[in-house]
Structure formats: C-alpha cells, structure tokens
UniProtKB/TrEMBL annotation:
Transmembrane segments: 31-53, 73-96, 132-153, 165-185, 197-217, 246-265
Pfam families per UniProt: ABC2_membrane_2
Protein name according to UniProt: ABC-2 type transport system permease protein
Organism this protein belongs to: Actinocorallia libanotica
Keyword annotations: Membrane, Transmembrane, Transmembrane helix
Length: 274
C-alpha cells in the first residue's frame, strides 16, 4: 500500500498528528513553552529578591496584604508564600488555564473548524478529553519550570530552609490550580458554545474574583469565604512549610473532575453552532 504524503506538512507534524492529544500538544507547543518560561522567570526574579528583604521592610507590609500571604516575610517560606506563590504566580496559572481552556473547544467552534474535526472518527468526549490532556501537560510544564527555577537559586538566594519536598509540593498545587481553571474554561466553552473571548473573560473573571475574596476575606472577618475559593486549597495548607496537603489537593482535583464531567456531558448533548 502506498502512503500519500500531504504537501506542506512536516514530518513532526505528521508524527504528532496520530492522535488528538499529540496534535494539540504540537500545535500549542510554542504557547505552552512561552507560558512556562514566563512563569518560571517571574518566580525566579521575585524569589531572588529575598536576600534584600530587611526586618524593617517585613514589618512595614500593610496589614491588608496579610491575606495574600504577606504575614511572615522574615522567613524564606513566608516570603515565598507571599511574594512568589501568593501574588503573581497563581494569577498567571489562572490566566493560563482560562486562556488555554478557551482555545480547546471554543476557538474551533467559533472558527467553524469543529465540525470538520468531528467529521473524523473521533467522538466529542474523546476530543474534549484529549484536548484537556494537552492542557494538563502545559500546566505540568509550567509547574516544572517554576520548580526548576526555585531549585536553581535555592542556595544562592538563601532559600535553603525550604526543603526540596516543600518546593515540589507547592509546584504540585500550582499545577492543580491551573488545571482547575483550565477545566472551568473548557467546560464553559463546551457547554455553551460561547466565543473564545467570552469564555476566557468569564473564567478569568471568576478567577480574579476568587483571588480577591481569598485575600480580603480576613480583613472583613469572613474567613469562612476562603473555603469557597480554590486559592485556599492551593496555598492555605502552606505546602512550602508542611509539604503536600493531600486533602486540599484532592479538593482541587475533585473540582476539576466535576467541571470536566459537567462540560463533557453538556457538550455531547447540545447542537453545535447554536
């Protein structure tokens, strides 16, 4: 039998095109790499400032920032929990999940490419799960980049008091946070057929709102509200100090699975293009 080679299609593209998972990985390889590098470099930059933190600077942090982890800047774990893993890094993970999740189904449906994909022998469920598996790979890559950055400067920046296990535990919860918002955006797009911009805006907006609630709830005496946000389960157990909080990790994983299941259920039952 003679195999027809498609003109203009590279060897790697053909190799990765054997499944929807590998094809999505290949098509988004640059996007995943940029997200990972940007997040890793940001974490490295902020972590490297730790030796410059003085006792006066730590004491002068506004009380309103304590809810974001800025209540123990004197220790390496306390500084990292606030300045690195409590501030911009989780927001980047949230935006990665929202932006990438919006691409998984909504982008193809908006462009009219989804019907062409589903004309091939692939079910809607398999398409969505393969796409989400690729998103998960990107989340793991981001977490690995952040972990690598932390371990690279651990000694030079005076972060030795945080164990390798503590850094690893924080990287795991970071990946789970990105996965949750990725599942949220994927589910919204799959369930509603909304545009990519609408899906991203909705998921990112929910993320920013949850982030603000988790940070400011203690200031208004409503600590219980933090239990309703994924950021509490991401960092509330202080993984840098205590290792991986299994109960919190399970909550994030269960919420991700529930969102993905709900989105898949709706996606398999609605009329596309409506």
């Amino acid at each position: 039998m003679t195999t027809t080679v498609l003109p203009g299609v590279s060897g790697p593209a053909r190799a990765f095109g054997r499944s929807m998972f590998t094809k999505t990985l290949f098509d988004n390889r640059r996007i995943f790499t940029v997200w990972a590098l940007a997040t890793g470099l940001l974490a490295l930059m902020y972590a490297s400032f730790y030796p410059q933190i003085t006792a006066d600077a730590a004491a002068n942090v506004p009380e309103a920032m304590s809810g974001f982890g800025f209540d123990d800047l004197g220790s390496a774990a306390g500084y990292l929990q606030g300045a690195v893993f409590g501030l911009l890094v989780p927001l980047l993970a949230t935006f990665y999940g929202a932006a990438t999740g919006a691409r998984m189904i909504s982008a193809d449906e908006e462009s009219g490419h989804l019907d062409l994909l589903l004309a091939h022998p692939i079910s809607r469920t398999r398409l969505l799960l393969h796409r989400f598996a690729a998103l998960a790979s990107g989340a793991v890559l981001i977490a690995a980049a952040v972990l690598g950055a932390m371990l690279a400067i651990r000694t030079g920046a005076g972060l030795d008091s945080v164990s390798v296990g503590g850094f690893t535990a924080q990287a795991v919860t970071l990946a789970l946070l990105a996965l949750l918002f990725g599942a949220l955006a994927t589910a919204i797009g799959a369930a509603t057929g909304g545009s990519r911009a609408t899906v991203f805006g909705t998921a990112a907006g929910i993320g920013v709102l949850a982030y603000a609630v988790n940070g400011f709830a203690p200031q208004v005496g409503a600590d219980w509200l933090r239990l309703l946000t994924p950021f509490h389960y991401y960092i509330g157990g202080e993984p840098l100090k205590n290792g991986l909080p299994l109960a919190d990790a399970c909550v994030l994983a269960a919420a991700t699975a529930a969102l993905l299941a709900a989105g898949t259920w709706r996606f398999t039952r609605r009329d596309l293009g409506r």
